[in-house]
Write a structure and sequence with these properties.
The chain is α/β, with parallel strands linked by helices and 260 residues long. The protein is built from nine helices and 14 strands. The protein has two domains: 128 residues, Periplasmic binding protein-like II (D-Maltodextrin-Binding Protein, domain 2); 100 residues, D-Maltodextrin-Binding Protein, domain 2, CATH 3.40.190. Helix 2 packs across helix 8. Bound molecules: glutamine.
Amino acid sequence: MKKTRIVALVLMLVLCVGIFAACGSKPGKGLDTVEDGVLVMATNAEFPPYEFIENNEVVGIDAEIAAAIAEKLGLTLKIENMEFDSIISSVKGGKADVGVAGMTVTDERLEEVAFSTTYATGVQVVIVTEDSPITAVDDLFAEGANHTIGVQLATTGDLYSTWDIEDEGLGTVDRYAKGADAVMALKNGKVDCVVIDNEPAKAFVAENEGLKILDTEYAVEDYAIAMNKDKAELNAAIDTALQELIKDGTVQAILDKYIG
Ligand code: GLN
């Protein structure tokens, strides 16, 4: 009796391994992607070094991570460049499989999309002009403060400064389509500071004279891949691939390549 049960168990195991092997040999097949055999990634290529345009192509950390995931799943990666504000609706509306855009996990977004495992940390920082009277993040929340804050529309920099500053009557938030436009507004004296993620902040400050990043941090957050809530199976496959790439050091190597 015991023996037959063991035999049955072994047979079942063999069968399972066989099924997995068969799936493995035809990766990509059967995955419920927007386009057959393709992983469609929505992003906003205005966010160096996570995504930016080089030689008419979207490149950067997120493009490389998505390419590695697609390869693991036997899919071809297709990148759709759009406004940051359109990424979530594109994923939710079934036009893209993933939103990979240095996207912070927030409770509000979790109502719209599913998020993968976290693959990087982001920090919201404040950019000011070198001679700015704003010397620390707390200056923005001080009683009687009345600053104009430049942000990229619909980013967490926009959300936080809207809640903490505009809604509190401590200033105004000016929303720009691109982070680079908010930085231009700062250079031209139209805003007093820009709240934005630390890595693009570093890139923008390096490109523009007379600007600096405050030492104090506004917020620390997690970046993850946004996915369609209705596609549990595809999402699990994407997340497993991402977890493997984190475990084997691929993600860290990609981060190190772009972030010195
Ligand atoms: N991390 C920020 C957010 O998720 C900004 C991302 C971006 O501009 N690409 O809102």
